[in-house]
């Protein structure tokens, strides 16, 4: 692990320990003990999220060759595992997925374009999800620093999302290709041709408006579906919230977690964010901390099998190459 992520991880662990200490180890432990079915239901929701996200990714793959759905789901599991458990700034799993997708015979340009599109759709739908959550919070009477911070975060995200989308358009295609050609200084450079191939595949993917829209709809549903983690856990701990409140908490917690991309697993940041967000709906700190810890269990329940699946794929590919 590099120095900066290691420092961020240690700082996050210290923050988490301090939060639990201030809240009370016994109180947090008691909230965990009362979660009952909350933990297994969280794991089931997380599995559903991975499967649905894999389906959404598969829709933007035009083929040929056609990528089997089970491969998209498996690679989505690996993407989640790497981005959640490893210090890769929440993008390393997506980069890895390009390589792993080529193991199934998918051309590199198509694999790259599909992952870029899937990440873009996921970012756009999360943006919408955050707006929904913020609206629900304001409707419930929420105000103050958390509303202001999220609002400014959304405003800041608009030009970033717009730039990400514009880079994929035809005009930007020419600019990127010219920039790479100038950098190559007249020499034959593989990146120039690779960029051309990726843009061709991006154009093919975005031309299929029906599957693209269906993928976006599924991704948005996935964000809302993930709110069931909050709903179930708090219900079984004896602090029931409505679905609207669960969506508000989940959406803003995900926004906070995304903003803390430099901290591995958003350790400490997620815990503090959930204490603030849950407190807006009358949920005490010990229950919010217990919710965060159960979410960590969900991370491990999906992450460990994902890392094992990655290891198995790499070994299988190495064995095929050596035969």
How are the secondary structure elements laid out?
Layout lengths: L2 H21 L1 H9 L4 H22 L9 H17 L6 H11 L5 H32 L5 H22 L3 H15 L5 H18 L1 H17 L2 H9 L6 H17 L9 H11 L5 H38 L1
Helix pairs in contact: 2-14, 3-4, 3-10, 3-11, 3-14, 4-5, 4-14, 5-6, 6-7, 6-9, 6-10, 6-12, 8-9, 11-12, 11-14, 12-13, 13-14
Describe this structure in words.
The chain has helices at 3-23, 25-33, 38-59, 69-85, 92-102, 108-139, 145-166, 170-184, 190-207, 209-225, 228-236, 243-259, 269-279, 285-322. It is an all-alpha fold and 323 residues long. Helix 5 packs antiparallel against helix 6 (108-139), helix 6 crosses helix 10 (209-225) and helix 11 packs across helix 12 (243-259). The chain starts with a helix and ends with a helix. Mean pLDDT is 85; it is low at 179-193.
Outline, from the CA principal axes?
globular
Radius of gyration: 21 Å
State the share of residues found in helices, binned by percent. over 70%
Average pLDDT figure: 85
Tally of strands? 0
How far apart, in Å, are the first and last alpha carbons? 33 Å
The biggest sheet, with number of strands, parallel, antiparallel or mixed sense and barrel status, is: none
In the predicted model, the low-confidence regions spanning at least 5 consecutive residues are: 179-193
What is the number of helices?
Answer: 14
What structural category arises from helix and sheet content?
A: mainly alpha
